[in-house]
Each structure stands twice: as C-alpha cells, then as structure tokens.
Amino acid sequence: MESNSTKIAKIATKMAVCDRSEEDEFKKIYSQKGIKVTAVNIGGNINSSVSKILESALVASKRNGLIREEHLHEGAVIGATRDAIIQISNKASGQNVGGKIGIARGGEHISVCIFLSIGLLHLDEVVIGIGHRSLPI
After folding, report:
1. What range does the record give for the signal peptide (predicted)?
2. Could you report the average pLDDT of every consecutive run of 10 residues in the chain (137 residues)?
C-alpha cells in the first residue's frame, strides 16, 4: 500500500518532468482529487541560481494556493526545496542547467522535485532531486 507522502512525491516528480501543455491538464486532474500542483521553469548556473530556485518554488507555491503566507508553510517549501537542491548540487555544481521544479501538495504532505538537464559540451546529463515536508492543513 502506497503512503500519502509517496503518492505526493510521485506527483511532484510528474510535474517536474512534464511539458507545459501537460501541466494544465495535470492541474485539472489532481484538483479534482484534492491535490494542488504547480511547476516552474528554472535555468542558469546552478551555483549562482540557488536563491532564485528557492524563491521560484516559494512564489509558485503561494500563487497556486499550495501554501498560505505563513511561517510554517513557507518554511516547509523552502526546506523541501533545499533538500532537493542538496541532492542535485554535486552533479550540477558549476554547470549551466535548465529544467523544472514540480511541487505537489495533498493534505499535510508537500513535495518539491527538481529535474535538470546539465549541459556538458555536446553531452547532456540529467539529475533529479526531491524533498518532502509535512505541514499543518
């Protein structure tokens, strides 16, 4: 049996890897199931983009109603996003990246997934990181 935290993490991952047209469809589908989702594109040098990634995840979460403008809610998104960044940082350090942040919230569970393509000359590498927090409903 799948836990709610696992289910929400899978949905956040799906949001991070989908294309723009699928995002709107997923928003409708998951909204009917009581799950809020969002995604935001990111890119640039990973080392200089960390604060921008944190800000983008927070702003997208607020704009799409995944969290309220409260210390606990904001801290949960920042914490989960930082966990995801830590998971990708070794592989992407110093490199130019492009990709997406996918965020899903169902009940007390919120997951942030970062999916990136890393440009290395003519070779492309990919990396994925995910973070989870629980927060008050």
Report:
1. none
2. 86 96 95 97 92 97 96 97 95 90 97 91 85 92
The domain defined by 4-134 folds into Hut operon positive regulatory protein HutP (3.40.1510)
| Whole-Å CA distances, 17 to 48, 59, 74, 128 | 23, 19, 24, 10
For helices 4-17 and 20-32, the axis angle rounded to 10 degrees is: 160
Q: Compute the distance between CA of residue 83 and CA of residue 92 in angstroms, rounded to an integer.
A: 15
Model's pTM, two decimal places?
0.94
Give buried/exposed letters for 29-57 (b at 16+ CB in 10 A, else e). Answer: ebeeeebbbbbbebbeebeebeeebbebb
Domain range annotation of the chain? 4-134
